[in-house]
Amino acid sequence: MFALSLGSALIDGLRDSIAVVACVSALAGIGLNVQFGFAGLLNFGHIGSALVGAYGAAIVVNQGGPLWVGVIVGVVAAGVLGLLMGLPTLRLRADYLAIATISVAEILRVLANSARLQSVTGGPIGISNVADDFYSINPIPDGRYGWGSFSYNHNTLWAMLVGWSLVALASLFVWGLAHSPWGRLLKAVREDEEATRSLGKNVFAMKLQAFIAGSVIGGIAGIIFTFDGGFVKPDFFIAQTTFNWYLVVILGGAATIIGPTVGAIVYWFVISVFNSLLSQAIGRDGWWFISSTDVGAVRYVLVGVSIALLLVFRPEGLFGNKEEAVIGEH
Amino acid sequence: MSTDTIDESRSPAPGPVRSSSGDPILVATDVHRSFGGLRAVSVDHLEVERGSIVALIGPNGAGKTTFFNVLTGFEKADGGTWRFEDHDLSGKPAYYIARAGMVRTFQSARVFPRLSVLDNVRLGAQNQAGERFTKALMKWSWRDQEAELAERARELVEWVGLGPKAEDFAGILSGGQRKLLELARAVMAAPRLLMLDEPMAGVNPALRQALLEKISELPGEGITVLFVEHDMDVVSAAADRVVCMAEGQIIASGTPSEVAANEHVIEAYLGASSGDLRDTRTGADSSDGEL
Ligand SMILES: Nc1ncnc2c1ncn2[C@@H]1O[C@H](COP(=O)(O)OP(=O)(O)OP(=O)(O)O)[C@@H](O)[C@H]1O
Ligand SMILES: [Mg+2]
């Protein structure tokens, strides 16, 4: 009926699964995993950390500040957001925490969008041309690298290199934390706060530390995203993205080290394959009730279904611990 | 019940547990807690002597657990003060009180299900350098301490008889095993006052005796014990002193046999419609036998 090329769909999938978009998701997922996976904190406003990181860096660079200052400002801003968001909310019950955090993220997006702050944030248009400094320090000689569908120019390669290096660094960081007594204590907080308190541990301080650490990693994701694309605008930072990152974490396996990275790679692979297959099947004229402009939305439906199936058969995610996933609360 | 019916010549005076040596580790005064109209805790005075084992008894709903919760910062007091060693702990947060050296367990055991039995016990240890965020990544700064703690944790896991389960997730343990794990974890914290809320509940009778002996060893290691228990045989065997609560108040205190013979205690238990009755009367009988 349709002339589908599975081969080209798979190639599209592979391309996206190693692209900068995937490493941004991986970084964001790694940060979220510290909060949600290890500490059990239901942060629904993680996109806010990416926003603050992205805007922090973009504003500094846009005002003529050096790149490294922009990066530091972005990272510190994300850390401060974690602190400010955590201080009043981390004593709340899980469901209230979720509502409070999603609200904070939405408020930030609305602020970035507002006309009053346009001189700083660029309002709805955002800030563009912020990546020049980032690409000017690219040590890779000009030219194209790779083969066939996997050929990249020196700048894309540079962004991928930096992005995936940061994913590796962040993973190492979380690995170190998770295998320390601090990580053990954080899991205890997740398992039973009262019992943790009864052992003389400051649960609130632990949550706050985890929240800030996760927020900083989320901020770094935002910074890479900004430098890759060269511009920021409020529309990038919609609440739905946080839920995509939850998918990434749960798909790969919450509370594991490589889970979020694997989750991000698989997520972008699946999205892209579906996108490619759907576009081919529907063609220009549409098919049944789906028009060619619906492809973007329909692929998410398919992704949702396939992930739901995966979690039915593998609730611990791809790399999670099966035994751990089936142990119930007492 | 009112305390003015007490016949001083026949029963010990109710109220404070006065320590003979005058070295109380815990002194609580006027500790109150109400839930709506219900006065769950209304304790005028309680002293726990350093190095002793004190049992807290009383019918269901007497306020024993609530009293524990208040003293350990898990429930806000409506009023009152309590001093532990040199610290005024009234109204302090739970973690602060535990750090000061007053560690409690829970009536329904709280373990960390998705951590190993050994990790559960390790978490009890205080002052772990590696638990600080700033040191977590500097393994050299906590490696030695961690090795010591692992050894101590292993000892304690063996001590409560969970050796074969050391590497398993605590979530697979039975109810009784969880109580044992909780005890090991609390001892790992090296408290100076250990408050156990029904440590024997759900532990099988064969193991009870062994557990009782272990609890009796604790004062020798510098741990004073205050424990809630319903079984008067256990209380008589382990406790130096017994405090009986009813309707939030301390109605009697003294040696196990004194308290078991106290008419207010018997009356409190008779008034309570529960299975505790049988235990108490057995306990009272056996203490009578000792006299
Ligand atoms: N959070 C609460 N809200 C309302 N009432 C409570 C609360 N906690 C305890 N109570 C009430 O306070 C009283 C004392 O309860 P508590 O648990 O301290 O008794 P207990 O002596 O430990 O009993 P048991 O031997 O059954 O464990 C009970 O009547 C109980 O219903
Ligand atoms: Mg109780």
Structural overview:
With 330 residues, chain A is an all-alpha fold. Chain A has one domain: ABC transporter involved in vitamin B12 uptake, BtuC. Chain A is 70% helix and 2% strand. Chain A has helices at residues 6-17, 20-38, 46-62, 67-89, 94-113, 118-121, 132-136, 154-178, 181-191, 193-198, 203-229, 239-252, 259-282, 295-313, 322-326, and strands at 144-147, 150-153. A two-stranded antiparallel ribbon of chain A has the order 1-2. In chain A, strand 1 (144-147) and strand 2 (150-153) form a beta hairpin. In chain A, helix 3 (46-62) packs parallel to helix 5. Chain A starts with 5 loop residues before the first helix and ends with a helix. Chain B has 2 domains: 2-111 and 191-290, Rossmann fold, CATH 3.40.50; 112-172, no CATH class. Chain B is built from 11 helices and 10 strands. In chain B, the strands form 2 sheets. In chain B, strands 6-7-8-3-9-10 form a 6-stranded mixed sheet, sandwiched between helices. In chain B, a hairpin with a 2-residue loop joins strand 4 (79-84) and strand 5. The A-B interface holds A 173, 176-177, 180-185, 187-188, 191-192, 194-203, 209, 213, 323-324, 327-330 and B 72-74, 93-96, 98-99, 103-106, 110-115, 119, 122-124, 126, 128-133, 135-137, 139, 142, 146, 169, 171-172, 178, 185-186, 189. The structure holds adenosine-5'-triphosphate (ATP) and magnesium ion. Residues 35, 38, 40, 58, 60-66, 107 of chain B line the site of adenosine-5'-triphosphate (ATP).
Summarize the structure.
The complex is a heterodimer of chains A (330) and B (291). In chain A, 70% of the residues lie in helices and 2% in strands. Chain A is an all-alpha fold and 330 residues long.
Which characteristics define this entry?
heterodimer; A: 330 residues; mainly alpha; ABC transporter involved in vitamin B12 uptake, BtuC; two-stranded antiparallel sheet; 15 helices; 70% helix; B: 291 residues; alpha/beta; Rossmann fold; 2 domains; 6-stranded mixed sheet; 4-stranded antiparallel sheet; globular; disordered N terminus; disordered C terminus; binds adenosine-5'-triphosphate; binds magnesium ion
